[in-house]
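Table S2 (continued). Query chain:
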Amino acid sequence: MRTSTTVSIFLAVVLLATGSAFLLLDFHAGQSDTTLSSTVAANAIDNATTRSEAGLYLYSGDDELDRRLVVALAEQGIEATPVSTLEAQYDRPVLYVATNSVNYTYTPVAPRGGVSWEYGYAADGNATIARSLVESDSFVVVVRDTPPADADYRYYLHGELTNTDESSGVYSLPAYRNHLTIGAAESTATSLAEQFRLRA
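Corresponding output:
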């Protein structure tokens, strides 16, 4: 009887430890199939350039997403500097990113999920415009009668993106959440870089 009780306690401890590991630790060994759906609108006034060589300021309001975006943008040759608060105007381009929804059905061996988000890019550093591109229902840029000194940089982008993911293998919950965040960051960087190349 004592042996049976000891074995039961041991098994309970093992199950508890295993379950905790999948909920708390970051590990995975598997593969994923991620599908991207995206729409990007560009507005370039006169001969405005992307100003991509200047680097950019980045705001998402999410420290982890900021960190992933910095890495993903660097891989595309774009230097990004995160900011914790959004000012109205910057001396370099600004990228504003907003996550609309994150949803997933988690199991350790076959998690499924999706992320939808938007970004606004203003080459002239006008963060008010970058933010309004995401939060407004229409893509309208007001042009003053007298061009400003930075008129050559009046280039704006609005992107709407959705990643749909199906993974298999072994994923802890933190690992799968990170997987979704990294996917969103990489898709954003790729989208931005592609638009820059089109304008080059």
